Amino acid sequence: MTVSFNGKKPSRRAVLKGALAAGGAVAGATMARAAGPDLLITQTQPWAQGLGEGVDATPYGLPIRFESDVVRRNVEWLTADTISSINFTPIHALDGTITPQGCAFERHHSGAIELRKEDYRLMINGLVDTPLVFTYEDLERFPRVNRVHFCECAANTGMEWAGAQLNGAQFTHGMIHNMEYSGVPLGTLLKEAGVQTEGKWVYVEGADASSNGRSIPLEKAMEDVLVAFKANGEALRKEHGYPVRLVVPGWEGNMWVKWLRRVEVTDGPVESREETSKYTDTLADGTSRKWTWVMDAKSVVTSPSPQSPITHGHGPLVITGLAWSGHGKITRVDVTVDGGKTWQQARLAADPQDKAVTRFYLDHVWQGEEMLLQSRAMDETGYVQPTKDALRDVRGENSIYHNNCIQTWWVKSDGEAENVEIS
Ligand code: MTE
Ligand code: CO
Fold first, then answer.
1. Residue 3: helix, strand or coil by DSSP?
2. Residue 223: which residues within 8 A CB-CB, separation 6 or more?
3. Confidence (pLDDT) at 148
4. Beta strands in 296-407 (DSSP E)
5. Gap between the terminal Cα atoms of the chain
6. Distance 151 CA to ligand 1 centre (A)
7. Would you indicate the residue range of the signal peptide (predicted)?
8. In this model, does residue 60 exceed pLDDT 70?
9. Ligand 1 centroid vs 107 CA: distance in angstroms?
């Protein structure tokens, strides 16, 4: 399956007016075939005629070569080089909720640095009773927690404001990953240093050249921010901030400082040193709003989708996708196959977790009808994911950040899918 872009600067993709007629669901289709002559069953195959590889062939296992398509990809025309750049998680090809580190998107402002644990230091200074410096070993001695959280770049889906652009869930929604972190609550370390009463914010920065300095209100820092050193059970990968990164649950990815080196307690946001003005949301009237840190509820159908077409013919079809909210737990996901005329409640694969990705399924019977597939997430605050039109009414078409609108895939009768807009 290849992904096509319409040249360097992609033109607006198809805009469909009105929804397609819904096909009737017919029961009774079978998913297995009747037993019959099949050489794969009746003949001894090559892999059963010799021996396989020994246990030490791959000390650290990698995916089998047949899965070599399931990789991070970037979009060349998006950034001038790969240093200050981004790539995308292949969400169209994954299942479950945990993103393997090896294919979790990367976003660097000055490249991924190599920092040894031995050379690692974390300083807490500013409005504290005792400025402190921690080594990696010091951090390992504090009481630890495990939490699963999504990290979504504020720019995720950012290319889609003006029209349907990128033909694949990986590219439209792949600036997200969801991992299980092990680490120490930042609040524990701040208490160790003793925050003074004038301390209201923390300024956090990384050890890379960009430093990615950001200000976070003290309240959030004390609430659930983690100083994490493991992801999915193993050390953070270099590209995700080895040996230590900040986890800021539910808040935009740019605050999740990698290679964390310093936390300064301040009495206000450090405007001059940070890029607060960069991360603003353009509104329809041309004004901007800033400090929109929380990622609102969002979802996307990951399969079928442009990079994951239907290849198995008519009958039972598993429609699946991801939903998440920076405000808490997902409570419900609805799916439509007819562009929003009728909605069905999807099945959530497991109990939704706080500020983490939830997997949903809709078990559908597909008779080859064209579909306009959408999903719509709801979270525990009662918030409902908006349509693209509703979001544009407020934000216009010139925004980059915080696009959490409902996504539409046009699935054609041959099973291929395309990124479209409907109105
Ligand atoms: N931290 C540092 N030190 N340097 C960076 O360039 N990029 C930020 C954030 N933390 C960045 C950083 C941005 S914009 C995002 S979206 C997340 O890291 C991405 O984290 P990931 O690369 O692990 O996916
Ligand atoms: Co980002």
1. coil
2. 187
3. 98
4. 298-303, 315-324, 330-336, 344-345, 347-348, 358-366, 371-379
5. 29
6. 9
7. 1-34
8. yes
9. 5
Q: Token pair of 339, please?
A: 């562009």
Counting atoms of ligand 1 from 1, which one is nearest the CA of 239? 22
Query: Among 342, 21, 310, 421, which Cα is nearest to 334's?
Result: 342
Which residues have CB under 6 Å of ligand 1?
A: 104-109, 151, 153, 177, 206, 208, 210, 212, 239-240, 253-254, 256-259
Which range is least confidently modeled, 36-50, 123-137, 175-189, 353-367? 36-50
The whole-number pLDDT of residue 338 equals 98
DSSP 384-420: BPPPHHHHHHHH-S---S---PPPEEEE-TTS-EEEE
d(CA 161, CA 405): 9
- DSSP letter for each residue of 7-28: SSSPPP--EE-SPPPPPPP---
Domains and CATH numbers, the chain: 73-289 (3.90.420.10), 298-420 (2.60.40.650)
Tokens 């442009």 sit on residue? 306
- What does the block give as tokens for 19? 């929804």
Q: Residue written as tokens 């660097």?
A: 108
pLDDT tens sequence across 161-214: 999 999 999 999 999 999 999 999 999 999 999 999 999 999 999 999 999 999
Q: How far is the CA of 106 from the centre of ligand 2 (A)?
A: 9
Q: Express each pLDDT in 251-282 by its tens digit.
A: 999 999 999 999 999 999 997 554 444 567 77
Residue 68 alpha carbon to ligand 2 centre in Å:
26
Per-residue tokens: 13: 């993709």
Q: What is residue 5's predicted lDDT score, i.e. its pLDDT?
A: 33
Q: 153 and 105 in contact (C-beta within 8 Å)?
A: yes
Ligand nearest to the CA of 105: 1
373/337 Cα distance (integer angstroms)? 5
Length of the chain as a residue count: 423
Nearest-CA residue for ligand 1 atom 23 is: 240
Q: Whose CA is nearest to atom 8 of ligand 1?
A: 254
Give me 155's structure tokens: 């720019």
Q: What is the distance in A from the centroid of ligand 2 to the CA of 154?
A: 5
Report field, pTM of the whole predicted structure over 0.90:
yes
Residue nearest to atom 13 of ligand 1 (CA): 254
